[in-house]
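Progress against Task 2.4 (sequence-to-structure conversion) is shown through the following example record, which the project officer requested during the mid-term review.
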Amino acid sequence: MRRPPTGRYDLHPSHTCSPCNDRAPAGSLLAPIKLEAYFEQFGQDREKLTAWRRPEVGAALDAALADVAAADPDHPRIRYARGWLAYALTRTGRPTEALEQYRALGRFIPQPFTNFNDPRQSFIDLRIDAVQGAVAAARRTA
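Structure tokens generated for the chain above:
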């Protein structure tokens, strides 16, 4: 998909159609689908990791966080949602929020980590990044 002149992505209609868009009920855990779409798009376009810091990604993250907060903790897609949140929050420089998702996941390794050659190591590496970022953030505010 081509990038519009503004440098922002218009996701493929399959990722933005109802019920995946803002009309999906809170707690449906459909909002993280946009994070997966960004992951796929950035990979196809060989975007740098800074692509994760775009405002539209931040908006998708906030929607996904609200979706998870409203979801039943036993929802069958909760780990899927938390996996995408953990990854994207780490990539966007929001390590404290990411760390909450890693804690909730425990030792379970969901998507997107399963997309990498070594899912376990990818999960561990990004979790370490989140821990280090959260510690650094806490020191700055102390």
